[in-house]
Amino acid sequence: MRERIELEEIYRASLGVFAQYGFRKTTVEDIAEKLDRTKGNLYFYVKDKRELYIKTVSFALERWQNRVRDAVAAETGARKQLLVLCRKAVEYLSQDGELRDILKQDPDIFPMFPTVDPYESINKRSIRMITGILKKGIKEKVFRPVDVDKVSQVIFSIYKMVIIRTYIKADDGFVQEMFEDTLDLLLNGLFIESERSGGTG
Q1: Among 81, 96, 104, 140, which residue's beta carbon has the most beta carbons within 10 A?
Q2: How far is CA 109 from CA 37, 41, 60, 100, in A?
Q3: Distance, CA of 100 to CA of 141 (rounded, Å)
Q4: H or E element, residue 182
């Protein structure tokens, strides 16, 4: 338990330093100084600056993910859960300035088409969260019986695009409107109810 508390203390401190200076300019000495520790003491927990960076970003991403999961768990119906998941996932970054600054400096944290993803396990948990809601919605008969694995990937890709455009490219006004339109299209479809069973013509 004590080691876990110490790790969280290290990650919180290093998150602030990496957010301020970026990965390249940050030194392990900077982080040690903020913690009032020696550099050698930090190497007891990580082997180098790169590992500390990846673990720090993972800590921040998991904190974000847990906040979204808690918000989803507070709802009951699948439709409301999906809405809350999408909105909270995007809104969270407006409150977490340190993670937002790191994403701006290192957009590879959220690549659209990753070949190597050091945060793959975290992203997979997010996709599984979406998949679970879709399965629940199908069972509740509020969602159509779709391929939940494929649709989860689509929703996650849309979510990443919104994050990139809003917080990394700072195009927040337009993207916020587009995000709401996308949510509406995702949940309500394009056709009016009486036409959904009709042809394409």
Answers
A1: 81
A2: 28, 27, 12, 11
A3: 37
A4: helix 172-188
Euclidean distance between CA atoms 176 and 174, whole angstroms: 6
DSSP 92: G
Q: What percent of the chain has pLDDT over 90?
A: 57
CA 169 – CA 178 distance, rounded (Å): 15
Q: CA angle, 164 as apex, 158 and 168 as ends, to 5°?
A: 165
What pTM was estimated for this model as a whole? Answer: 0.86
CA angle at 118 for the pair 112 and 120, rounded to the nearest 5°: 65
| Distance from C-alpha of 9 to C-alpha of 1, rounded to nearest angstrom | 13
Go through the domains of the chain in sequence order and give each one's CATH number: 57-189 (1.10.357.10)
